[in-house]
Design brief:
The protein has 477 residues and is α/β, with parallel strands linked by helices. The chain contains 13 helices and 22 strands. The protein has 3 domains: 199 residues, FAD/NAD(P)-binding domain (3-Layer(bba) Sandwich), CATH 3.50.50.60; 136 residues, FAD/NAD(P)-binding domain; 112 residues, Enolase-like, domain 1, CATH 3.30.390. 41% of the residues are buried.
């Protein structure tokens, strides 16, 4: 019998932590898990799931427009945020219960409390002290707010799911995938959206051609996008002006304690492009940092990186042999499926005596902008810096959009190694691009060549047939 209370203690009840706890418990290990907020973590409670449901809701406005173009007699309609919001939170409650049941049936002891280190094997969990042979940190990350006067007046992505009412106007600060996704969502729900980004183009780090196409589509949909633009200052408006603008935008106090009463009114923002404007709300989508503050990690010898991330090796082991970390808290690839795979590799390594490194190569992903963006592998810019390449690209109006008179363009793009002929990158901008890249990703991960793609007969008429019918490169590098 071990001298420790548990063989494994997991700190964090998100997708990665829950998967690791359940898989370890299946080996007969004594496992406990602590979560101080809600089981499900960022993805289920305040990220992927509620965001995707909001994407679905926001897309119906455009669907109604298309339906009329196809002969349907449909009125404008009206979006009911309170009705949707109630159903949304009902679904999140259901999913949280599912996570709890999965842990219970797996024999994992759940602590609804914060855990922190007292020494390398000892944790303070709520009002209890426990010991564990192995400790896994899976605490995820949190949105960051810039250090500037009155920044507390702004929201972060977590807060949008808790709004009691939608604002009439919203300024989004940032140009990453979270900023661009919420710009599309809120615009689709009828909010007047302005977006400021300090860089030259949104979605930095992704394929440049895809970025440009998405930015154009955002503007076509009515998003007032300003690149190369920073916020110079932000602050409250005076009472007389606030009354003229229609009063407060309300939020639930119990769900959002950080929004103080005096911060609920409209926000006056002065930008580096010379504009000064009042917005009902401001959303900061300016990055995320790991949740490591106050855990006592450095005190027990765990090395942290510049942004507070836990530094780990290929097996998710920290600088302390029996302390591991997975998911966003490591700032490797901040994707839920990656955290789950890291969890499974961790269990293989520690509980099956089968050292298993985590595979972070050729991971497909999707950005739920409107239109969607699916991607795997190298961008054109990354690939041409590494080796000679051929670029195959088709940009076109899909049949559905063209018939409806919509301005949207789709894009299918393959980056091909001139030497090996392997597909180094695949990038899709189109409706349902996330679904398409999942399937294309299988071929790319298997090492498919351009000629392998060419041998596949096209499915006609589809958008995806372009992936197997592009015969000549549009350029080489």
């Amino acid at each position: 019998m071990s001298d420790f209370d548990y063989d494994l203690f997991v700190i964090g009840g998100g997708s990665g932590g829950v998967r690791a706890a359940r898989q370890a418990a299946a080996t007969g290990a004594r496992v406990a898990l602590a979560e101080e907020y809600r089981l499900g973590g960022t993805c289920v409670i305040r990220g992927c799931v509620p965001k995707k449901l909001m994407v679905f809701a926001s897309e119906f406005r455009e669907t109604l427009t298309e339906a009329r173009a196809y002969g349907w007699d449909i009125g404008e309609g009206r979006f009911d945020w309170p009705a949707f919001r109630g159903k949304l939170h009902g679904e999140l409650d259901r999913l949280e219960k599912v996570y709890r049941k999965l842990l219970d049936t797996s024999g994992v002891e759940i602590f609804d409390a914060r855990a922190s280190f007292e020494d390398a094997h000892t944790l303070k969990v709520g009002d209890r002290t426990v010991t564990a042979k192995t400790i896994l940190v899976a605490t995820g990350g949190h949105p960051v707010v810039p250090d500037m006067p009155n920044a507390g007046m702004g929201l972060v992505s977590n807060d949008l799911f808790l709004l009691e009412d939608l604002p009439e106007s919203l300024l989004i600060i940032g140009g990453g995938y979270i900023a661009c996704e919420f710009a599309g969502i809120m615009n689709g729900l009828g909010v007047e959206v302005t977006q400021y980004y300090r860089g030259a183009q949104v979605l930095r780090g992704f394929d440049e051609e895809a970025r440009g196409l998405i930015a154009d589509a955002m503007c076509e949909r009515g998003i007032d996008l300003h690149v190369g633009t920073n916020v110079v200052s932000m602050g409250p408006v005076d009472e007389e002006e606030e009354e003229r603008l229609g009063g407060d935008i309300h939020m639930e106090e119990d769900l959002l304690p950080r929004a103080r009463a005096e911060e609920k009114g409209p926000v006056r923002v002065k930008a580096s492009n010379g504009t000064e404007k009042v917005f009902d709300r401001v959303l900061f989508a300016t990055g995320r940092d790991p949740n490591t503050s106050g855990l006592g990690l450095e005190e027990v010898g765990v090395k942290l990186g510049r942004r507070g991330e836990i530094v780990v090796d290929d097996y998710s082991r920290s600088s302390v042999d029996h302390i591991y970390a997975i998911g966003d808290v490591t700032r490797r690839l901040e994707l839920t499926p990656v955290a789950i795979r890291e969890a499974m590799a961790f269990v293989q390594t520690v509980f099956h005596d089968n050292p298993t490194p985590v595979d972070h190569d050729l991971v497909p992903s999707a950005v739920f902008t409107q239109p969607e963006f699916g991607t795997i592998g190298l961008s054109e810019e990354e690939a041409r810096d590494r080796e000679p390449i051929e670029v195959y690209c088709s940009s076109f109006k899909a049949m559905r959009s063209a018939f409806a008179g919509a301005p949207d363009r789709a894009m299918m793009k393959l980056i091909v190694s001139r030497e090996s002929r392997k597909i180094l990158g695949c990038h899709i901008v189109a409706p349902h691009a996330g679904e398409l890249i999942q399937l294309a990703g299988i071929a790319v991960k298997m090492g498919a060549t351009k000629e392998d793609f060419d041998r596949v007969t096209a499915v006609h008429p589809t958008m995806a047939e372009e992936l197997v019918t592009m015969r000549e490169p549009v350029r080489t590098a």
